[in-house]
UniProtKB/TrEMBL annotation:
Keywords: Disulfide bond, Secreted, Signal. The gene is C8g. The keyword tRNA processing does not apply. One of its GO terms (cellular component) is blood microparticle. This is CO8G protein. InterPro entries: A1-microglobln, C8G, Calycin, Lipocalin_CS, Lipocln_cytosolic_FA-bd_dom. GO terms for biological process: complement activation. It comes from Scopus umbretta (Hammerkop). Belongs to the calycin superfamily. Lipocalin family. Pfam families: Lipocalin.
Amino acid sequence: GQRQRPPPPQSLLEKVAAQEGLSLPQLTGRWFLVGVASRCSYLAEHSHQLEATAVTVTVLDGQSLAISTFRKLDGMCWEIRQRYLPVQAQGHFLLKGRGYGIKVDVVVGETDHSSYAILYYQKGQSISVKLYGRTSRVSDAVTDKFEQHVRAVGLSEDVTYYFPTYGFCDSADEFHILDGELQI
């Protein structure tokens, strides 16, 4: 008999519901990275070096998101530019990396557009959850929601990191701009 091919691996994000009624124009503007949950070994080893990170969101062509991330690397302010491309499902995006087949699936899991946003990122079989706030601090209720989302995808408090609430970069000079992919 013929051997059957195994089914393609299911995306971990297929089970994640995107925010209903997501309004891209309302996502525009400045956000602060408040927390991230990830099994990334680099993050675990360097969590004591986390730098305050700010993000500016712009909507392109009514459906793509241009993301500019401002953060310090070795004491210098850098801007990392990315483009989240829409996929069929609302609230789902694709971030293409450099190189063949490198991609990150992104889902806007929950947001009220005005104070917080919880996003999921999947690269291969690795998943992470990020909490963004319109200010560098969010309410305990929002933190609790974030931690519920984290547990829902099998991550835990021991791989959840919170970012500093001070020392943000507002800009980067032209020598410190990267057009690139996201490390999750």
